[in-house]
Amino acid sequence: MKSNKGKDLIIQDVDKSFGSVHVLKTVNQVVKAGEFFTLLGPSGCGKTTLLRIIAGLEIPTSGAIILGDENITSLPANKRHVNMVFQSYALFPHLNIYENIAFGLRSRKMNAAEIERRVSYGLEMLALEPMKKRMPDQLSGGQKQRVALARALVNEPDILLLDEPMSALDAKLRASVQEELRRLQRKLGTTFIMVTHDQDEALVCSDRIAVMSEGNIVQCGTSEEVYDYPCNRFVAEFLGAANMIQAKRVDGGVQTDLGFFTLSKIPTWSEGLITIRPEWIRICESQPASNGLLVTVEDSVYRGTNFDLLVTPGNLRVRTSSYKHFKPGDQIWLELTATDLVALGE
Amino acid sequence: MKKLIIWHGELTTRGSLQRRGYSFLSSGMLWLLFFLVLPSLVLVALSFASRGSYGEVIWKFTLENYTRLMGFSVFGWTPDYLFILARSVEVAFLTTLISVIFSYPLSFFIASRPKNTRYLWLTLVIVPFWTNIVIRAYAWFLLLAPEFPLAKLATAVGLIPPETPLYPSAFAVYLGMVSMFLPFVTLPLYSSVERLDWSLVEAAQDLYSSRTRVFFKAILPQTMPGLSVGIVLTFVPAMGTFVIPDLLGGAKYMLVGNLIQQQFGASRDWSFGAAVCMGLMVLTMISLQLYRRRGEEIDLL
Amino acid sequence: MKSTHPVIQALALFTMAFLYLPLFGVAIYSVNAAEKGVVWEGFSLRWYVELFQDEWILQTAWNTLELALVSTVIATVIGTLVAFGMNRFPWGKKANNLLDILLHIPVVTPDIIMAGALVVAFEGLRLVADVFEPGMVNMIIAHITFQIAFVALVVRSRLASLGFDVEEAARDLFADNWYVIRRVMLPLMLPGIVAGAMLAFTLSLDDFVLSFFTAGPDSQTLPLYIYAAVRKGVTPEIHALSTLVVLITVILVIAAERLSRKNEKH
Prior knowledge:
The complex is a heterotrimer of chains A (346), B (301) and C (266).
Chain A: E1 9-18, E2 21-31, E3 36-40, H1 47-55, E4 62-67, E5 70-71, E6 82-85, H2 97-106, H3 112-125, H4 141-153, E7 159-163, H5 171-188, E8 191-196, H6 199-205, E9 208-213, E10 216-222, H7 223-228, H8 233-238, E11 243-250, E12 253-256, E13 259-261, E14 271-276, E15 282-284, E16 292-302, E17 306-312, E18 316-321, E19 331-335, E20 342-343
Parallel strand pairs in A: 3-8, 3-9, 6-7, 7-8
Antiparallel strand pairs in A: 1-2, 1-4, 4-5, 9-10, 11-12, 11-14, 12-13, 14-20, 15-19, 16-17, 16-19, 17-18
Chain B: E1 4-7, E2 10-13, H1 14-47, E3 50-51, E4 57-58, H2 64-70, E5 72-73, E6 76-77, H3 80-112, H4 115-130, H5 133-143, H6 149-157, H7 170-194, H8 198-207, H9 211-240, H10 243-249, H11 256-264, H12 270-294
Helix pairs in contact in B: 1-12, 2-12, 3-7, 3-9, 4-7, 5-7, 5-10, 7-9, 7-10, 8-9, 9-12, 11-12
Chain C: H1 6-30, H2 46-53, H3 55-87, H4 93-108, H5 111-128, H6 136-162, H7 165-172, H8 177-206, H9 209-214, H10 222-232, H11 236-265
């Protein structure tokens, strides 16, 4: 299955309301050809609706979807070169695996030889060859997912859509599937657009993530960009744990209840939040040269790979490796380095 | 330009979709309209008409069928019809009650069977449910024959003369009715029993020492949906049965069903028959509402 | 679930026996060599043999079969269309309720009321066309009327359990309307359709009340025959006939149940 000839997807001013519920609020986004793009957000943020609009299963109230140079907004789903992996997989219960995968090819009346070639390739690539004669109800969750993937991919779509693909799998399987999905996408070069509410999944698989909330894309960027430099509190907290510190801008840095700190990127606001992730806070032997803070350990939680400390003042969470053991009552020096402190927007 | 919608993946307009939907529904709906709804409406109208001397219908509005039902006729007040009505209610009520009483143990029993044999037991209950009513009724002739223990017992106690069968009699009718309608109660009740949350029952057992209180507080409320459906499927149809009272109860033991059958048969008094049907129909409509409200959770068919 | 109290077990088994005893009685006496009375005179299949030599009974059986087949086929087609129309199109809540009520009326209404309504209806139709004399046509129409409801309810429940995901998936995979129906919906509906048809068939075979009011002299069915016969007096031949009818019903019901069990897997 060759990768598809570089068609960008342009989501242009897409707005969608279901009755009085305004689900998507004038969304604009470009998904580049060949990238693994994820729509990340809590339930109700509109990510699934947006995916379905791209698939052709919903029609936007206004706006356009442009694939390559073709406006496909009014094109019905069965004419779009976009295929979807459904959350429930939606395998055809009355057809065996081979026929399930062949469905999209037979419906277009492809010739038998071509169908055989493509389906065999799909079976092989997703390690489904031994079960091609089995029925869907005889498969495990992970196997069903692979069938759904194969069924979509044999059609060589311009874009593959994935609706919460791992939600039905158990936790252990999820990790390996995430990585396999990433590898698959890299190998094929097809554009993948995935919808999920699981930030780990998004970070592992994606080239770029669009964090959504209440019908808007709040921030879009690479995994590192979105994780290291969240633009606001919502994004910061959705992608992982984050300490919030109220701050006022002063000359050379910010003033907070915990003291004066410098940041490598000075905020533009006069008052706002700065954040630092628990794993970036450094624990020092003695008072650091700058951005130091003396705290008392309130609580310490062991998590196998690390300790999570809760310290005062500031109610900060600090993540430290499991080498160092701290007890409640211990006094330690923390350094919140200028490069790790991030000023948040609205 | 017509507004486009997407209906489960299909791009179309609402109008075109509805037109297609109508075409699917039309054959069935027209049939039912023509052969069910319209005739029922005619029946309603008929109940306000009257019978001519040759059995034909006189289409002039009158309430005489209904008053006759109440017992007011040219010859003074006769409660005959009211008796029939009362007896029908009594029979229906007792049949339903007895069926309910025996359905609970049966349902519990089946629910307690291991999963793979449950289906077998259910099939055993379902089979009589679908068997011919005539056969099931007359089958009692055998068991109630004078040579068999039941009749002999009745003779010994002095209820009936010796060498006579135990039918036609009210007892025989009840036997026939219960054996007929019991599955109607058991099947929906079983659906509810199967989904019982036994932890609630155990909690109740901790709270209440008496078994009856446990039943009424923990089991009955949970099985209400199935029970309601069962009662609805039994009560009114029981009132309208005529085969069982006819075969097992004899000519004198009439229920509403027999009364109606008579009007549309030998007596040829359709307008009166229609009026009686109306009475029964009102009860049916009430039952229907109950069924639809409770019946969503019960998948009978 | 806790094991059952012995009293409950006893009651349950007693109830089952109660349900089956009459039928067993009939079956046993159908092979009783005695011509009259309840004394057992030895095993004999002669009553069954006599059945198959009785012209009238064979004709009646044929009528019953013909009636059931014709009405089932028509009712299944119409019922399936109705079920599809109800489940797969966007009707408002009120419309859905109305349709639902309409379908449930034949299920909850006592047969006798429907029979009365049909008697009246056919009287009216007789003014228009002669074909509506009491007879096969009337009976077929009567049977179809209640069968449609049963078939529609069974098929609709099957459709509801299928959900819409598979339909969307099919369209995502380039299928047009006809392809979706032909390759996805129909095959998936089929178990429901067959189960509905078998149920309808059984209901028709065993129907008494509607047949009673719509039958003509030439179109007697087995239930009607048995009714007329037992009012005169019970004979072992009747027992044999009844046993056969029950057996056929049992086989059909079990087969229909098997099919709907298979449904649940999907």
